[in-house]
Write a structure and sequence with these properties.
heterodimer, A: mainly alpha, three-stranded antiparallel beta sheet, 16 helices, B: alpha/beta, Beta Polymerase, domain 2, five-stranded mixed beta sheet, two-stranded parallel ribbon, about 20% helix
Amino acid sequence: MANPKYNAALDRYEKHLTEISSQEMVLNMGPQHPSTHGVLRLQLITDGEIVKEVVPHLGYLHRCFDKHAESLNYGKTIPFTDRLDYLASMNNSHAFVMGVERMLGIDHKIPKRIEYIRVLVCELNRIASHLIAIGTYGIDIGATTPFLWCFRDREHIMNMLEWASGSRMLYNYIWVGGLFYDLPVGFEGRCAEFITYFKPKLVELDEILTQNQIFISRTSNIGVLPADVAINYGVSGPMLRASGIKCDLRRIDGYSVYPEIDFDIPTGTGAMGTVGDCWDRYKVRVDEVKESVRIVEQCLERLQKDFQRTPDFDPRALVPKKVNLKAQDYYIRAENPKGELGFYFVTKEKSDIPLRVKSRGPSFNNLSVISELGKGVLIADLIAILGSIDIVLGEVDR
Amino acid sequence: MTFDEIKSRLISVFGTELIRKEEHSGLQPAIVIAKDHLISVCTFLRDTEQLYFDFLSNLTAVDYEDHFTIVYHLSSLPYQHNLVLKVELEANRSLDELPEIPSIASIWRTADWHEREAFDLMGIYFDGHPDLRRILLPDDWQGYPLRKDYQEAEKYHGINIK
């Protein structure tokens, strides 16, 4: 048997559970619970309706991404990255591909049309991901209509991305050095039609949910996350911005063609309560959808005017037959809908199989703050807090 | 601040013996430090005004067969500079005696779950960690799957897993 000190923490945890007072109760939320957004198990130590402690248990959806990536070459790993945050597969593969391209030194040779298509599909996917976040958050709180509306609008995006890539959710569309295919003929027009359709729907969504008094009462001043705690826990993305930090890797790192695109970074203002409460986190996502719509519009304009489709355009022209890298390590990060997605590569000399790939999922870090936020809240508020974090278990467990 | 400026700040405070070696092979230069200095270096990096590394992006362990490396990716939100910090540990492959390194979970809370993950998958013992349990695998799992010499078991609780 292994050294007892490696089991000391487990023993401590089990002892802690047996030592709770007779007033307290251990309550399991999940893994099969609709408002945990997947197979997350939260163990709550409760005193009546008050949550005293939250112990998250992960790993129910662990699919060994790191281990798989060590036995496949870079191109074959891209479908696995799609399955990390399966609501934003384009963004995942974009980050992964950027990392490999930079190590190869071909990132500045990628044609502008390809980069614009990548940003276009990524932002469409960001809208789809945020629509799920907003819709399911509504249903967590008890509002069913916005959920149906969000899924109705998301379906248009899914259909468009299916048209481009052949798959509804797991695309494998962005490749090292290029794309699977060019956009289908007529995609830009249909996408522009969707944007025209979608803009008034956002106003409707605002009216039914954002200004809804019941929704505001359930979310304002609940789960307040101060900026310093957020940073210390490695929280990123909309959650960090809701705490008032204007931090967006699309702007800071300026990767792909984001420096050429005009967009704002919404932050939490505390309009309905305190900065960094659940309402702020919800509102930042709604505002980000609006910004993504702006980005999509700009991409469409450039794709239709400056970087039009030409008969001899080959999106696979730069795709390397074999990725030959020298031994090095590189950490790439990109702004996913959930936050900072990072890939850490350690490459082997003259091999297209990496020695180690570590994925830093934003949901993993965002979720770690739940034990801090969940202390002393009502059980019903814990649902509101968890929904506002917007986790995807595919990425927490990897 | 550039990499060299950060390095010279570190040397001016901790002396030249702090830096075991520098890595310039890839796109991101890295500093390899001795593990005895880890806590004081990390606290210094976080609390010094001009450095202000307030955000731990990533923490991971790599198995290089002849040694383990723990990699810390730090970044500073206000100054937008980054630093890669590494600590090398001797490759002790016995399951009774895992390689040990001080935990930095008290400096950046991000490290809490990342260190648990490194313990779970790579078998690194983080000394002083508040709650070092397995995080992704079941509590009774045997072995550390991301190690290069890992042999997967035939059965888990009587279920064939091979």
